[in-house]
Amino acid sequence: MKNNILIIGGGPAGLEASAQLQRMGYNVILIEKSPKLGGHLAKWDRLFPDSVPADEVLGSLLRGAEGVKCFTDTDVRAINRLDKSYNVRLTNGITVLSDAVLVASGFDLFDAVKKEEYGYGIYDQVMTNADLEAYFKTGSDPRIEHPGRIGFAHCVGSRDEKAGCRSCSKVCCATAVKQAIEVKQAFPKAEVYCFYMDLRLFGRHYEDIYLKAQKEYGVRFIRGRVAEVSENYDGTLLVKAEDTVAGKPLKVTLDLLVLMAGMRPSASGKAIGDLLEMQVEEDGYFAVRGGIAAGQRSPIPGIFLAGAATGPKTLPETLADARAAAMEVDRYLTEIFPDAKNYKQLVKERW
Amino acid sequence: MVDFGFTLVPSSRINLDLFDKEKYEELVSMEPDVRICMACGSCTAVCTAGKFVHTSLREAMEDIFNAKTDNALESLRACQLCGKCAMVCPRGINTRHLIMSITKVYSKK
Ligand SMILES: Cc1cc2nc3c(=O)[nH]c(=O)nc-3n(C[C@H](O)[C@H](O)[C@H](O)COP(=O)(O)OP(=O)(O)OC[C@H]3O[C@@H](n4cnc5c(N)ncnc54)[C@H](O)[C@@H]3O)c2cc1C
Ligand code: SF4
Ligand code: SF4
Ligand code: SF4
Question: Which domain holds residue A239?
Fold first, then answer.
């Protein structure tokens, strides 16, 4: 008997872990609540830092997970712990007996409507990072018609106690720099401003795109958080911030403001967490067992975690986390079910 | 040290040796949130008085840390305690109380 493993969430983390565990010989069941696989990656156009098309990356993840039993439009209805395994009832009526469960429920984009002073959903010319990705993917958005002046507001719904999120979302500085370059490529005459508190460009090649944005594209970086936005009679936006380097309040009229909405814990992930009584930390993301050196085990035996479900991560970090989770699941199953036909026996048979 | 015959004018130099820890602790005991400002500048950007006269809570705090408390008072002199800055502060600082506390502590000579 091959062990059954249930993976909840068909984003990059769930797909990569499925592929790895299937290769190890396990019987993987992947469920995704939305109609299609890919998670947030399916919404992005090009990826920082090297502008690879998101579709290409998604395509290779999907190919890797071929053969995995996938149920889309499917969530968990109920979950019970048996002696060693979990009995999981899915919303599609199927019940799965699973020896390990990997929660890869990812994140939700911060709902920018909540940051009312920025006017998303109120003023026509305010959009989010996700809206801009959609524009690049489809080539149309009524808000974008040869904009002359474009601003990027960093830290929207992140590093903001009032928005209920103290932490940094990690990916949005790099996204802002990437998108600033992309709008300059699309509209070379446009003036582009980035309003930041700190530029967190920590990853490999990230500083390079920052330099490129300055040197080749003339993007202006202003150190000050966007404080408020109002709409002028002609539909343009009046944006206020302090240029904290100059020590002076600043205003600028813009044709378009792009909000760098941050990452929040997934609401449907939280619902799973509630069913399992899983521990979350103060930031709302799932707690991992054993802290810094631990990784991908939850405090509950047999329940594993991967990807943005345990906090903001870039795509390469998510994939590395998913591979590590697959290793952890394998270690656990070979210890708990030593008599089961796992990949080690498969290797012996096939060799 | 060799004296080369020129120095910076004191007003354009930051000298952390002049920082008055006792007064600062007095301020902290009145309003601990002075410690948590992230220097984002939102308060200064929306300041109603700042439209007319240089007014900046962010700068005032920096001046306190840099032992320039007279500048700090100057940066808050025109404040009308309207509270608009409290609405935008991402760290949720009670800015009006902070401004009053700064004025109380550093006006005493
Ligand atoms: C604006 C923005 C731009 C980004 N651009 C880049 C970039 O250019 N380069 C880069 O490296 N990274 C980028 N990232 C980060 C990247 O998107 C994440 O690292 C990645 O999406 C995380 O993958 P994940 O699988 O953990 O989560 P997700 O992508 O969120 O996928 C989780 C999946 O789980 C599903 N799910 C949730 N709950 C349930 C449930 N109860 N039952 C069933 N299914 C469920 C969801 O529907 C979703 O499909 C960006 C992030 C943002 C916010
Ligand atoms: S990555 Fe940058 S924009 Fe995003 S929350 Fe962190 S500092 Fe703000
Ligand atoms: S309370 Fe004072 S510092 Fe704050 S916005 Fe009003 S006038 Fe400006
Ligand atoms: S708004 Fe708050 S955190 Fe930002 S500079 Fe002012 S006091 Fe500091």
Answer: 112-262
Q: Domain spans of chain B?
A: 42-107
> Is A331 found in the same domain as A240?
no
Mutate to test the pocket of ligand 2, among A158, A179, A195 (most ligand atoms within 8 A of CB): A158
A340 versus A170: the higher-pLDDT residue is A170
Question: pLDDT tens, A312-335?
Answer: 999 999 999 999 999 999 999 988
| Centre of ligand 2 from the C-alpha of residue B39, in Å | 15
Residue of A224, A240, A249 lying closest to B40 (CB–CB): A224
Higher pLDDT: A80 or A338? It is A80
Helix (H, G, I), strand (E, B) or coil at A266: coil
| pLDDT > 60? residue A65 | yes
Considering the domain architecture, whether residues A271 and A298 belong to the same structural domain is answered as: yes
Provide the CATH number for the domain around residue A223.
3.50.50.60
Give the DSSP per-residue string, A6-58.
EEE--SHHHHHHHHHHHHTT-EEEEE-SSSSS-GGGGG-SEETTTTEEHHHHH
Q: How many helices (H) and strands (E) does chain A have?
A: 8, 20
Note the residue count of chain A. Answer: 351
Distances (CA, A) of A115 to A120, A228, A249: 8, 10, 21
A159 with A254, same domain: the answer is yes
Residues on chain A bordering chain B, Cβ-to-Cβ distance under 8 angstroms: 117, 155, 159-163, 197, 223-225, 227-228, 240-244, 247, 249-250
Give the closest-approach CA distance of B98 to chain A in angstroms. 18
Residues A137 and A215 in one domain: yes
Q: How many domains does chain A have?
A: 2
Q: Are residues A272 and A257 in the same domain?
A: no
Give the residue-averaged pLDDT of A220-237. Answer: 97
Confidence of residue A336 (pLDDT cuts 50, 70, 90): confident
Q: How many A from CA of A264 to the centre of ligand 1?
A: 11
Distance B52 CA to ligand 3 centre (A): 12
Which tens digits make up the pLDDT trace of B15-31? Answer: 999 999 999 999 999 99
Share of chain A above pLDDT 70, in %: 96
The nearest CA of chain B is from the CA of A290 a distance in Å of: 29
